[in-house]
Amino acid sequence: MQAVALVRRRVVLAADAFVEVVIWRVPEPVAPSTHLFRYRLAYVVEERCVLRYDNERGKGDHRHTEATEKPYAFSTPDQLMADFEADVARWNREYGRS
């Protein structure tokens, strides 16, 4: 089985902000993740990535917010999207963009 793109989209939220979501189903886990998905979700504001979720090889599932990187407990693509959307909304509230 080859990797299959499940979601690939960019949504413009404002003149200076967009969300990009890419999720694939992969034939083998991206180590050290144990699930069959590869993903990257990013929120970019004023040409700067302020929030990102991904599962980079060697690092596993994690999220970046500003200058921090923390593990992310992946369960399903739907939950991944819900968690990311909640973080985008939280970031917008905290930085006065809602």
What does this structure look like?
- The structure is a single chain.
- With 98 residues, this protein is α+β, with helices and mostly antiparallel strands.
- The protein has one domain (4-94).
- The chain has one helix and six strands.
- It has one helix at residues 77-94, and strands at residues 4-14, 17-25, 37-45, 48-56, 60-65, 68-71.
- The chain has a six-stranded antiparallel beta sheet, covered by helices on one side.
- The protein is globular and about 45 Å long.
Q: Summarize this, please?
A:
With 98 residues, this protein is α+β, with helices and mostly antiparallel strands.
Describe the protein's topology:
Elements: E1 4-14, E2 17-25, E3 37-45, E4 48-56, E5 60-65, E6 68-71, H1 77-94
Antiparallel strand pairs: 1-2, 2-3, 3-4, 4-5, 5-6
Q: Which stretches are low in confidence, meaning pLDDT under 50 for 5 or more residues running?
A: none
Domain module tally: 1
Average pLDDT metric? 95
Q: Distance N terminus to C terminus?
A: 42 Å
Rg calculated over all Cα atoms: 14 Å
H/E series = EEEEEEH
Output the structural class. alpha+beta
Give the strand content: over 45%
Widest sheet: strand ordering? 1-2-3-4-5-6
Helix content: 10-25%
Principal-axes geometry comes out as globular
The main β sheet shows up as: 6 strands, antiparallel
Tally of individual helices: 1
In total, how many beta strands?
6
Provide keyphrases for this structure.
alpha+beta; six-stranded antiparallel beta sheet; 98 residues; 1 helix
